[in-house]
Amino acid sequence: MPLIPRTSSILMKFSTPFLKVILPILIIGVGLVSWAILKNLPPKKAPKASGNVKFKIAHESGKVGDGIPVIAYPLVQQDYQVKIISRGVVTAGEEIDLSAESSGKIMSIAPEFEPGSMIKKGHLLVKVDTLDLEADLIIAQSRIAQAEAVLAQEQARADQALLNWEEIGYEEAPTALVLRKPQLKQAQASLDSAIAQVEKIEREIARASVVAPFDCIIAERTVSVGEIVNRGKALGRLIGSDYVTTTLPVSEQDRTFLPTQLDGTIVDFVHPLSSSGHHWQGILTHIIPEVNSSTKLPHIAARINAPFSPQTTHSLQIGQPLLASIHGRILEDVYVVPKSALRSPDEIHIMDEDNTLQLHKITPILTDQDHIIFRDAPDTPAHWVESKLQSWKIGKTLSLITETGEDS
Q1: In whole angstroms, how far apart are CA 64 and each of 45, 49, 118, 382?
Q2: pLDDT tens by residue, the chain, 408 residues
Q3: 57: domain CATH number?
Q4: Which of 6, 58, 260, 262, CA to CA, is 20 to 30 A from 20?
Q5: How many domains, in total, are found in the chain?
Q6: Does residue 111 sit in the same domain as residue 217?
């Protein structure tokens, strides 16, 4: 029993000085050793500069090597395809109100005669009752048979009259009345009339079957089975599916860059609000010979063939807005730089063949959505400078940053 209290007393006697003196020394020692190890580790390699990092280097690093690091590209002449940007709205190339051509009761309607359906030319859409017309046709056909019989009889009488005249021995020629020519003419007219009546009724029967007059899309249907219609009654509305049209306004300046021959000029169309990237290709057809009353600008007609694909989401719709890019003239031997290269409305920075910064004055012949096009050549081979530093001084030495991020 006395051993336990005595041992505890001894431990407590020696632990107090240990905690106060020895433990802090150990902690300091471990820290010093760790610092020495970390100090001797090799430094990590910085990531390679690329893309937008190049711009960051040009802004912050100041001089590297013999000059200010910049991104620049060779200023070379090239042929440039002008793209004229315009906007339009899809309109139907062909559009009609489908009407009944005969009166009667609607007996049947094709299942495809519904808004949005694509229909081929000649497809039966509506069938009107033809029972009365078919009865009229039978009556008219019987009149043909009667007229043919009368004509045959009159022809036989005329032949007999001529024989009688010759047998009697008259020296003068027989008259038209003797030869029954008026009666023959009347019989022939009756036959022609009966035939015409049959053909008329057959046309009426054919018109009772209303078919699509061209390849189309059903825009609207306005009748139902069992409805009584009169000639001229609207049955629906059809839109031609072969092509759609649009009109594109162009400014007088853009008009100077249009091809001399407009017909067939390619136009690329996209939906201005869509991010799908889908586009349609069309062609210009002609310039409209009248200034638009609202925009006061000349307009050009364009056409897009095969615009509808109901089974996909890329089908055009009537009334849809379009952003157009017209393929204009090709400008030969010009310089093309992005708008971001401008340092003033008519100046760009260039790096000459001595790698020094110069200010190059230009006269733009065209400014499109992204580029400046000009023909003003520098005195010596040069690069146009893309980088934008905080300060510029003409004559400063530049160092070209290559595509790999290294200076040259």
Answers
A1: 19, 14, 67, 21
A2: 344 444 444 444 445 555 555 656 666 666 665 655 555 554 444 333 333 333 333 333 333 446 888 899 999 999 999 999 999 999 999 999 999 998 999 999 999 999 989 999 999 999 999 999 999 999 999 999 999 999 999 899 888 888 888 888 887 888 888 888 898 999 999 999 999 999 999 999 999 999 999 999 999 999 999 999 999 999 999 999 999 999 999 998 888 999 988 899 999 999 888 777 788 999 999 998 888 778 788 999 999 998 887 665 677 889 999 999 999 999 999 999 999 888 888 999 999 998 999 999 999 999 888 899 999 999 889 999 998 877 778 888 888 886 544 444
A3: 2.40.420
A4: 6
A5: 4
A6: yes
347: which strand partners?
344, 361
Token pair recorded at residue 58: 């040009």
The answer to whether residues 323 and 249 belong to one domain is yes
* Judgement on whether residues 310 and 272 belong to the same structural domain of the protein: yes
Domain range holding 224?
95-127+212-240
Same domain flag for 155 and 193:
yes
User: Which parts of 3-148 are beta strand (E)?
Assistant: 68-70, 72-74, 78-89, 91-92, 95-99, 104-109, 118-119, 124-128
Sign of the dihedral through C-alpha 186, 188, 194, 199: negative
pTM: 0.65
